[in-house]
């Protein structure tokens, strides 16, 4: 599946940068176009793979390249004022060559949190291609204001996109790890999961090979439930049968004959279960899922059709959904078999309830401190007897 990716804000830019790097490393051909938008010049300077002509600095008049200081209202305002400039950066995207737009942003800050929904709104007005969001929730140790920002942005972003894929930093951050080091690993995990998912829709032209290969239309159909999505992943190293991957599959003399069918079936089925029951990008209950898509990637000899079908049936049972699609993604040179599961239209998510509760508490706290602020300052500055005179 070919995407035009827009990274909004620091997290958004870094994650899209990582996607471009992933795409080059794996030759997966997903990123047709990559743009980074930011109000902070320094954040753009940290990007290594998005060309500088595709790095857009907005709001220079108001914030002078220093960012919006985690203020999503300012982020939204600046995005609205500069929407034409952002739009221009996307003008040379060959829209007939892409399947969808993907806007990536951390929802806890200001630039991406406020700006991403504004861009989604604009893109949806102009294009018929689906506009997806990838929203990153903050870690709980980041504090109330980030949670409040994320809860507000989440609400808005879900409404503006065709589907919001969510990644929850809180479920992924390890304690005792430096934030930057942690993000490096987390961003790699994001690129791997979504890279396999979207990459799957890119192998579809060779109909003989592609009999059960996932097509981009299946990804789009799964995501067309709308709402919120989460993704699971599991992988296992295998020995790559070094020669004749594609050829042997075409001629039917598959080296899979040499592999024990029962064990390849079992491997696939168990990887599907591990992906669904392991750590999802956003922890959610399987039961509350509208649609799902299962992708099993790896050397063709290991992509056992029976295993995928069994896994698909199992997912149907777990999700109570009859719309579970499944297929494979042949990766000739890979040394791994991986399973990715996309759960779309998930609605039983404790983490979102918790986020909203903490956000409400943070809002009440901020409001009450603001209300008392003038009074407290007066009390501090003025002397008790009110005898001192200020200079002017
Ligand atoms: P913005 O530049 O104003 O949009 O804000 P940032 O993107 O710097 O931060 C928003 C949120 O994104 C933070 O609160 C973090 O939760 C998260 N974040 C920042 N950098 C990264 C990153 O590299 N990876 C991930 N996964 N999350 C990040």
TrEMBL record:
InterPro entries: CetZ, CetZ_C, FtsZ/CetZ, Tubulin/FtsZ-like_C, Tubulin/FtsZ_GTPase_sf, Tubulin_CS, Tubulin_FtsZ_GTPase. This is Tubulin-like protein CetZ. Involved in cell shape control. HAMAP family: CetZ. GO terms for molecular function: GTP binding; GTPase activity. The keyword Metal-binding does not apply. Signal peptide: none annotated. GO terms for cellular component: cell division site; cytoplasm; microtubule. Residues 2-195 form the Tubulin/FtsZ GTPase domain. It is found in: Cytoplasm. The gene is cetZ1. One of its GO terms (biological process) is microtubule-based process. SUPFAM superfamilies: Tubulin nucleotide-binding domain-like. Its main location: cytoplasm. GTP binds at residues 10-14, 110-112, 142, 169, 187. Belongs to the CetZ family.
């Amino acid at each position: 599946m070919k995407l035009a990716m827009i990274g909004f804000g620091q997290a958004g830019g870094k994650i899209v940068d990582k996607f471009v790097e992933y795409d080059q490393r794996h030759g997966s051909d997903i990123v047709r176009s990559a743009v980074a938008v930011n109000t902070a010049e320094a954040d753009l300077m940290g990007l290594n793979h998005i060309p500088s002509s595709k790095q857009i600095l907005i709001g220079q008049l108001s914030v002078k390249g220093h960012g919006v200081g985690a203020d999503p209202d300012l982020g939204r305002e600046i995005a609205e004022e500069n929407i034409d400039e952002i739009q221009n950066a996307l003008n040379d995207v060959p829209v007939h060559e892409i399947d969808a737009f993907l806007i990536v942003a951390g929802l806890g800050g200001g630039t991406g949190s406020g700006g991403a929904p504004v861009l989604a709104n604009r893109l949806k007005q102009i294009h018929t291609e689906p506009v997806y969001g990838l929203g990153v929730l903050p870690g709980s140790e980041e504090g109330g204001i980030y949670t409040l920002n994320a809860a507000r942005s989440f609400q808005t972003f879900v409404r503006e996109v065709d589907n919001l894929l969510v990644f929850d930093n809180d479920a992924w951050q390890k304690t005792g790890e430096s934030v930057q080091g942690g993000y490096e690993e987390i961003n790699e995990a994001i690129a791997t999961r979504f890279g396999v998912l979207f990459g799957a829709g890119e192998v579809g032209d060779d109909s003989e090979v592609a009999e059960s290969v996932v097509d981009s239309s299946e990804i789009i159909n799964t995501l067309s439930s709308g709402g919120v999505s989460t993704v699971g992943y599991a992988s296992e190293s295998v020995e790559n049968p070094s020669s004749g991957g594609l050829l042997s599959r075409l001629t039917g003399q598959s080296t899979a004959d040499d592999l024990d069918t029962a064990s390849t079936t079992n491997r696939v089925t168990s990887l599907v279960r591990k992906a669904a029951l392991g750590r999802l990008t956003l922890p959610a209950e399987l039961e509350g899922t509208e649609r799902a898509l299962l992708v099993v990637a790896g050397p063709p000899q290991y992509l056992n059709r029976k295993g995928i079908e069994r896994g698909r049936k199992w997912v149907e049972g777990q999700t109570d959904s009859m719309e579970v699609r499944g297929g494979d993604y042949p990766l000739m040179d890979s040394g791994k078999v991986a399973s990715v599961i996309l759960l779309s239209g998930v609605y039983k998510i404790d983490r979102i309830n918790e986020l909203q509760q903490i956000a409400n508490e943070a809002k009440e706290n901020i409001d009450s401190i603001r209300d008392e602020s003038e009074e407290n300052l007066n009390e501090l500055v003025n002397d008790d007897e009110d005898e001192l005179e200020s200079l002017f």
